[in-house]
Amino acid sequence: MIQRVHIENFKAIYRPVSLSLQPFTVFIGNNGTGKSSILEALKLLQNAVNADLTKAFNDWGGLDKIRNYNAFLDQENITESGFRKLYSPVSIYFEVVVEEKQYEYLVRFNMSRNNDYYVVEHEELLLNGSPVYIADVIGKTGENLAFFTNPANQSTPLEFKYEANRLVLGLAGLPMLPVDFLHFQQYVKSWQFLSLNAHDMGKPVLSSRMVNIKLGSEGRNIAEYLLWLRGQGQEYLDSIIRKMKFVLPYLNDLQPHEQETFNREIEVLMYEDKEGSPALPGWLLSSGTLRILALLAMFETPEPPSVLFIDEVENGLDPRTIGLLISEIQNVVEDRTMQVIVTTHSPYFLDLVPIQSLIVAEKANEGSYFHIPENEESLNIWKEKFSPGKLYTMGKLTR
Fold first, then answer.
1. CA–CA separation, 36 vs 344, rounded Å?
2. What are the residue boundaries of the AAA+ ATPase domain, all occurrences included (predicted)?
């Protein structure tokens, strides 16, 4: 579980933001306040773990597009390892507990002085307060030097050089990588980010012909993911269908179907509880139906993510379906199956969430800032009389 996160110089975040997170955390705020920035920063990190920095930053149009404009330094700065820079780095730090072990991870992303290549200015991983590795960029060479703790001799760390546009956390196959490192690496890789795009979710998709299928962040491959789930066990799909019948009382069945064509396209077919009713293809289903289908699939998977991040979780969902969704989230959180972190605009959604889970995003001239209503004594009398959603619409949760 992510216990604390600290972000600097990312998008609207300029001043350091340090937040404690709950097993179920809900970010709220007006449009443009940066409430999604925490999720996006962690997604950037995961992308950098899975690829090199160029591919990770290409999703944003480059590091210069997501680095806060206030990060420019008045004069050139030289780090202890000799790296020359004109900008403060994009910094991401978080504390997590994985398999009852306490990890701390810090990374600083930057660019060379001439803005011609990306670098990992600094990276470190601590386990129970002791370093697993520490890495720094070396001067102008475009390389990083990493020091790993040597189990055989604590006073003599293992060291190696590698390209500065990669994370140590993204490396694999090195003999010095300890088991605890691999556990933490897998923890980060198993994060699941969803920003579902219902417009494309109902369309048939080409079979990827892969053994393990992961639901894409936009949900485009929901049909193939359901087919994979059914392959893991019919009970997973049956459970989803039972819950979908709560959303759609007229539903009889819902199945992924692989077409017998050259391309082997896969689509979702829905059958209504009416004799002679034809199969309805996924592209005829409502956006809310497709979105809740994808969300329920996340709670039924035999391979749950360590953390599930959902942007604008309430989109397309009616109040009754939101109630079902909250119930599903609470179940997986209480079972410690996964941590769930979401953003929302919905007062009704907030009414079903404990105020301890809320983090409010706001924006001032110096950038985004965040505060936790549960920690504010001035709200105590209001919290006794009104629900979180009502407090939000009354403007009592803003400063």
1. 9
2. 21-365
Buried b (16+ CB within 10 A) or exposed e, 47-83: bbbebebeebbeeeeebeebbbeebeeeeeeebeeeb
Domain that holds residue 164: 66-183
Domain count, the chain: 3
Q: Is residue 43 part of a domain?
A: no
CA 225 to chain centre: 19
Residue pLDDT, tens place only, 290-332: 999 999 999 999 999 999 999 999 999 999 999 999 999 999 9
- Among the ranges given (9-18, 138-147, 219-228, 380-389), the one the predictor scored with the smallest mean pLDDT: 138-147
Q: Note whether 6 and 91 are within 8 A (CB).
A: yes
The SS3 call for residue 190 is coil
Nearest to 29 by CA among 329, 342, 262, 303: 342
| Same domain membership, residue 20 and residue 71 | no
Tokens encoding 202 = 């109902």
Q: Residue 378, Cβ neighbours under 10 Å: how many? A: 9
Q: Let me know if residue 377 belongs to a domain.
A: yes
For the chain, the residue count is: 399
